[in-house]
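On clarity, I found the account of how folds are encoded harder to follow than it need be. An entry of this sort, consisting of the sequence and the corresponding backbone structure tokens, reads as follows:
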Amino acid sequence: MTEVSTARRSRITPEREAELYAAVLDLLREVGYDALTMDAVAARTRSSKATLYRQWGGKAELVAKAVRQNKPGVSSDEVDTGSLRGDLHALTLQSDDCRMEQDSALMRGLAMAIHGNPDLLKAFREHLIEPEMAEFRRVLQRAIDRGEVRADNPAIEFVMHMMIGGFVARTMIDEKPPTQAFLLSYIDAVVLPALGVPTT
């Protein structure tokens, strides 16, 4: 992080930043990404548009950081149960069913917007996709180090795909929101067997 960006970020307190992110998520749920404007965010949060641009650069980065901040705060470093199954279950249990339903609806709307907005895709890769992949790599590396998963297992590269697939497919195929119970059973039935890990 450069000195300039550090100086910029220090002007807004963590509480104010959280308040701004919450307002952005509310607006996203109300109007969607394409209709969301920095003017609307400024009005909703009683901020100046200049401050928003100075702090976040633009709508794409503001939205990506708001979505990232909305995710549960416990990292894979803090979740180490001693087994891959335990770690994946613990990470899943960070979100309750209500939050998963809200996140699922939000992400469905953003998925459409990402296809037509290169800036949003870039911001999502930087602030959400890459950090999430790094979390899963840490969890999997621990499992490899413990001898639970073979380092040459080809499914390792697709764990993130499997997890996102289960989350998205629940709504598309079953017309139901993802739940803790569904995702835990999905991990045991699909993800762990692909990695050669016993579920009992």
Observations:
- The CA atoms of residues 89 and 184 lie 6 Å apart.
- The longest helix spans residues 118-146.
- The chain is about 70% helix and 0% strand.
